[in-house]
């Protein structure tokens, strides 16, 4: 911290008395607040949808991710240094799940290219748009094109 009003020293502070209701709230509800905080980081529940069941599905999927991450941390018992690494972050955990699922699909389908890795050839020049690499969108002229002869 930076301050022009204080010296660089530590000061002991006495805890103030507080109502038992506030103490029990801070003691027991902190887990709910932490869960809500984790849900908000990389959440899918913010997706807008007219269908109520889709919003409920993505909310439940997000809760499953956060609960699995908490269990993963409990089972691995990380050191404080490991907790600060990307491996033990919620984002790293979700990326590991995604990579595992995609790699399993690639092995079962017998694909030669990994969609999570950038292509090694056919890369665009600097300042030029990247070519579409999704086969579904590039074959059979799936993309909509505008021609000058169209009357509409």
Walkthrough of the structure:
With 152 residues, the chain is an all-alpha fold. It has a domain at 20-113. The chain is 49% helix and 0% strand. It has helices at residues 20-28, 30-41, 52-76, 80-83, 90-109, 135-138. The longest helix is centred in the middle third of the chain and has 25 residues, at 52-76. Residues 12-69 form the PiggyBac transposable element-derived protein domain. This is Transposase. InterPro entries: PGBD (IPR029526).
Largest sheet: none
User: Helical percent range?
Assistant: 40-55%
Contiguous helical run count:
6
Output the structural class. Answer: mainly alpha
Uncertain segments are none
| Backbone CA Rg | 25 Å
* Secondary-structure element pattern, one letter each: HHHHHH
Q: Rough shape?
A: extended
Strand percentage: under 5%
Distance between the termini: 63 Å
Give a summary of the structure in a few sentences.
With 152 residues, the chain is mainly α.
């Amino acid at each position: 911290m930076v301050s022009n009003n204080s010296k660089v020293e530590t000061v002991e502070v006495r805890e103030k008395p507080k109502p038992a209701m506030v103490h029990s709230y801070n003691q027991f509800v902190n887990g709910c607040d932490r869960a809500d905080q984790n849900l908000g980081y990389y959440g899918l529940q913010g997706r807008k949808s007219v269908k109520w069941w889709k919003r409920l599905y993505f909310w439940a999927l997000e809760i499953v991710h956060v609960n699995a991450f908490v269990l993963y941390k409990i089972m691995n018992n990380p050191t404080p240094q490991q907790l600060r690494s990307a491996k033990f972050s919620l984002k790293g955990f979700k990326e590991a799940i995604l990579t595992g699922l995609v790699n399993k699909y690639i092995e079962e389908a017998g694909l030669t290219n990994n969609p999570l890795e950038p292509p090694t050839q056919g890369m665009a020049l600097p300042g030029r748009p990247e070519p579409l690499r999704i086969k579904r969108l590039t074959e059979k002229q799936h993309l909509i094109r505008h021609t000058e002869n169209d009357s509409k």
